[in-house]
Design brief:
The complex is a heterotetramer, with two copies of chain A and two copies of chain B. Chain A has one domain: Molybdopterin biosynthesis MoaE subunit (Aldehyde Oxidoreductase, domain 3, Alpha-Beta Complex), CATH 3.90.1170. Helices cover 37% and strands 33% of the residues of chain A. Chain A has helices spanning 11-19, 55-70, 101-118, 138-145, 150-157, and strands at residues 2-5, 27-34, 44-51, 73-81, 83-85, 90-98, 121-127, 130-133. Chain A is globular. Chain B is globular and about 35 Å long. Chain B has three helices and five strands. The chains are: A alpha+beta, B alpha+beta. Chains in contact: A-B, A-C, C-D. Chains A and C meet through helix 1, strand 2 and helix 3 of A and helix 1, strand 2 and helix 3 of C.
């Protein structure tokens, strides 16, 4: 399930919904990303997440489909917020459920690595009177590259 | 052709969206970038280094060789920073 | 933080407490383990988790210390239940928080692998009129072995 | 010496806890296992295959060579299945 939204999300409710009434799902791996005051305590006043409406949902749905295709998962959840957020607030929730923990953990790490490099979001940080766009990180590219397979290569090159 | 700009690409061009009619010899993303760079000082600044500009055609990532046509939605943006 | 308890836990509240008031923690990786009806839908009537009171807390505290020592984490949480549980109920919650996601993910997977092989719990499954003790799995041993280092070897051999 | 038994080890022995006074030549976990296996039919059944029995001395995992003494808390159990 994919949700791209401005409002906050309830982690407990979202994760519980993934396995409600189920007795065949043993593992729920999840990740919460928070706005981090990288400039030091009190330095970052806000971070605004801009995104590309339409393409975001499309990329996230493809990401969900790839994870479900690649691991023996029951469900995938990606919630990504946009808009102006304060330090400490929630940005993203990824989760993967499975019978076994290995698939859930791997899929969840995969979702985050790909979100960092494939989801059309951009971050504007406000530090004091200055606002600057956060640059993409090479180590995020490297992290995403470890999931590359022939199939995902092909998919990436599709028009 | 509908164009969308995001992040500092939009800031430099000064608008988030425009509709353009490039000449017939603009058939790929790379040719469109070269043509757009000549349209204004802001465009020139935004596309000064095409190597750091990403493109999506109809909401899918596209390389510079990719074909573009009059009915496409083409977006330009810096490398993404989601998650 | 370590909690060994019979009662259920509130995932949302537990995870939120890990980062409340903090602006320097960007990543919360977590894992929830649920009772799985391995014998097929409706076959497993209950699972009873027995443990070794005292040793459990001791092993879990060592596990937390090892994770904090090995990765640049902010906090570690391990909640493990004991007693009689129904299929679909929560058994365990592990979480690790950090500035960056890689450390949080790795530490969380490490916690689960070690819980499977080092935490003194035993599972009695009730299927129909039969009750049987769940055997330890070799692949859990293999999963834990990937975290072995000279240091953890040494620690394992301590009296 | 205080002994604790868990899971099917306890089921076979028929009790979860006992206090024993093994002879002086029982100085290691392995020697204790061999001595316990002679104490009753249940003990014999529980320790029939020492290779699948785990031990903790004073709440830390212990190997068969590990020393045990009168003041130790010694636990026997099958391989753990936490998580």
């Amino acid at each position: 399930m994919i949700k791209v939204q401005e409002q906050d999300f309830d982690v407990g409710a979202e994760l519980a919904a993934l396995t409600r009434g189920r007795t065949d799902v043993g593992a729920v791996a999840s990740f919460i990303g928070l706005v981090r005051d990288v400039a030091g305590p009190g330095a970052l006043s806000a971070m605004t997440l801009e995104h590309y409406p339409g393409m975001t949902e499309r990329q996230l749905a493809q990401l969900e489909a790839q994870a479900l295709d690649r691991w023996p998962l029951d469900r995938v959840l990606i919630i990504h917020r946009f808009g102006r957020l304060q330090p400490g607030q929630q940005i993203v929730l990824c989760a993967a459920t499975s019978a076994h923990r290995e698939a859930a953990f791997e899929a969840c790490a995969f979702l985050m690595d790909w979100l960092k490099t494939k989801a059309p979001f951009w971050k504007l940080e406000e530090v004091g009177d200055e606002a600057h766009w956060v640059a993409a990180r090479q180590d995020d590219e490297d992290a995403a590259a470890r999931w590359q397979t022939d199939r995902s290569e092909t998919r990436e090159n599709e028009s | 052709m509908k164009l969308l700009y995001f992040s500092w690409i939009r800031d430099r061009i000064g608008m988030g969206e425009e509709t353009v009619q490039p000449p017939d010899d603009v058939a790929t993303v790379g040719q469109l970038v070269a043509w757009l760079a000549r349209q204004s000082g802001g465009h020139a600044e935004a596309f000064a280094d095409p190597a750091i500009v990403c493109c999506a055609v109809n909401q899918e990532f596209a390389k510079m060789e990719e074909a573009v046509g009059a009915n496409d939605e083409v977006a330009f943006f810096p490398p993404v920073t989601g998650g």
